[in-house]
């Protein structure tokens, strides 16, 4: 009778526990990826947003090959292996994967061997207050029943953390590769600018020698010679400044490729790197390949799961334990068959009052989720800004290059005419110097515009997460993120 009454009283508690266990914390993932078309392509954006699946695992290929520069290819490949930032990101990924394996180990039974010897008085009624020795050795097994999903959600969160670290490794690799390309292209632009400055210095020296001969012949005053000497010295100073800048750029490139600046050397050469053409209609869904956006997505998903883990603190914790081995008061009898012992048990713990600790834990996890969502949305907005910046730069720089080329042609013609007229005494030396300054300024500006075009091309590749020739370029409409 007592047993039946006890069973009837415990039944509602058991049923409640079962129902609570079935009511697991929802783990639906938020719909975050929204991808309108890029404004710079001149296409009218749709009225709404288009959802797209994350595609950070999509192959990006060796995007730097579009520049058709063997030296650049070698530098990027070396940096991909030897750059220290990439190696540090790889180490953080290994750490995150180890933590994920550690979290997954909680799903399995924990088995251990144990043994010990204790001596106490008063614990044995047979010996009274006389000290007694007790030795034990055995096998212990413990297993936590994941009835409410605390362990499984923690494992999933750790897995998402590891996936986020993997995406950050890809992001670091892409950033380093792009920085190597941009630094190398800046260095080649400096080589061309230095060559231009050397030619200008040689021209000024020829003019100075001519002016000195004319001064000796009494055709011009000493003031004209002093002006040319001042212009020559100023141009030489600018050339030396370019040499210093080029040296620093080479040292920065050495660090990027994981080499010592003391032994790294990149000889100057003619700038023959191809400028790739950007195809029209690059879909905005390529942003789903950006590793930093993928990492932010994983952070959101992991934070959501940790909200679920925090909520499971309200549920009971159930553990199963068992032990088997030997126990004897005499160490010589410890491993005899008659000294064998065993035991099984089940532990259930349910906090009743904790001063608001569990509620605070849920609120903290929810706040972390809100922060992760805001960080993801901010990252997406920054990604669109970066792409639009580079697309507009490429478009405007192309127009600027055309106009600047016309300015260079006109300045060269003006210098040629001024030089002829100066030699024949029709114009003053100041007119010739002004013409040469204008030509030098326009030719340097043309080189800087050209360099900016290359920088924008690399910047666009980096901002869209890799090369723009995406296979299929498909847009996935109304797809739920997984």
TrEMBL record:
One protein family per Pfam: OEP
Keywords: Coiled coil, Lipoprotein, Membrane, Palmitate, Signal, Transmembrane, Transmembrane beta strand
Organism taxonomic ancestry: Bacteria, Pseudomonadati, Pseudomonadota, Betaproteobacteria, Burkholderiales
GO molecular function, one term: efflux transmembrane transporter activity
Protein name: Efflux transporter outer membrane subunit
Signal peptide start-end: 1-23
Membrane topology category: Lipid-anchor
Organism, scientific name: Comamonas suwonensis
One term under GO cellular component: plasma membrane
Keyword Lyase tagged: no
NCBIfam families: outer_NodT
SUPFAM superfamilies in UniProt: Outer membrane efflux proteins (OEP)
């Amino acid at each position: 009778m007592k047993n039946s009454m006890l069973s009837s009283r415990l039944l509602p508690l058991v049923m409640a526990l079962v129902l609570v266990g079935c009511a697991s914390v929802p783990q639906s993932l938020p719909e975050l990826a929204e991808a309108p078309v890029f404004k710079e392509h001149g296409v009218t954006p749709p009225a709404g947003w288009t959802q797209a699946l994350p595609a950070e695992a999509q192959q990006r290929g060796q995007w730097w090959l579009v520049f058709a520069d063997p030296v650049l290819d070698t530098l990027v490949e070396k940096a991909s292996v030897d750059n220290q930032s990439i190696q540090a990101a790889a180490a953080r990924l290994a750490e995150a994967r180890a933590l994920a394996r550690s979290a997954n180990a909680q799903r399995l039974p924990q088995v251990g061997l144990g043994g010990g010897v204790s001596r106490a008085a008063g614990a044995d009624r047979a010996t009274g207050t006389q000290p007694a020795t007790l030795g034990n050795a055995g096998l212990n097994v413990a297993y936590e029943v994941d009835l409410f999903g605390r362990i499984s959600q923690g494992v999933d969160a750790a897995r998402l953390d590891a996936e986020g670290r993997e995406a950050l490794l890809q992001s670091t690799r892409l950033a380093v590769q792009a920085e190597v390309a941009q630094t190398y292209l800046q260095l080649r632009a400096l080589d061309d600018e230095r060559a231009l400055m050397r030619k200008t210095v040689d021209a000024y020296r020829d003019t100075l020698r001519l002016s000195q001969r004319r001064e000796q012949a009494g055709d011009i005053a000493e003031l004209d010679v002093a002006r040319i000497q001042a212009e020559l010295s100023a141009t030489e100073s600018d050339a030396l400044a370019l040499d210093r800048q080029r040296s620093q750029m080479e040292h920065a490139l050495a660090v990027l490729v994981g080499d010592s600046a003391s032994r790294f050397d990149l000889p100057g050469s003619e700038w023959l790197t191809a400028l790739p053409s950007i195809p029209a209609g690059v879909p905005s869904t390529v942003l789903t390949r950006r590793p930093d956006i993928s990492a932010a997505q994983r952070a959101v998903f992991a934070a959501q799961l940790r909200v679920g883990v925090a909520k499971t603190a309200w549920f009971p914790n159930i553990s199963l334990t068992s032990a088997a081995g030997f126990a004897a008061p005499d160490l010589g009898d410890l491993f005899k068959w008659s000294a064998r012992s065993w035991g099984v048990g089940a532990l259930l713990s349910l906090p009743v009052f904790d001063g608001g600790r569990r509620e605070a834990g849920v609120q903290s996890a929810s706040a972390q989720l809100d922060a992760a969502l805001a960080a993801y949305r901010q990252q997406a907005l920054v990604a669109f800004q970066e792409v639009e910046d580079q697309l507009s730069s490429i478009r405007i720089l192309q127009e600027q290059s055309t106009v600047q080329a016309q300015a260079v042609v006109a300045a060269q013609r003006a210098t040629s005419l001024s030089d002829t007229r100066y030699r024949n005494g029709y114009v003053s030396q100041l007119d010739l110097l002004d013409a040469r300054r204008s030509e030098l300024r326009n030719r340097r500006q043309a080189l800087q515009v050209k360099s900016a075009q290359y920088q924008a091309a690399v910047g666009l590749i980096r901002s869209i997460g890799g090369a723009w020739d995406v296979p299929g370029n498909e847009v996935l409409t109304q797809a739920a993120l997984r």
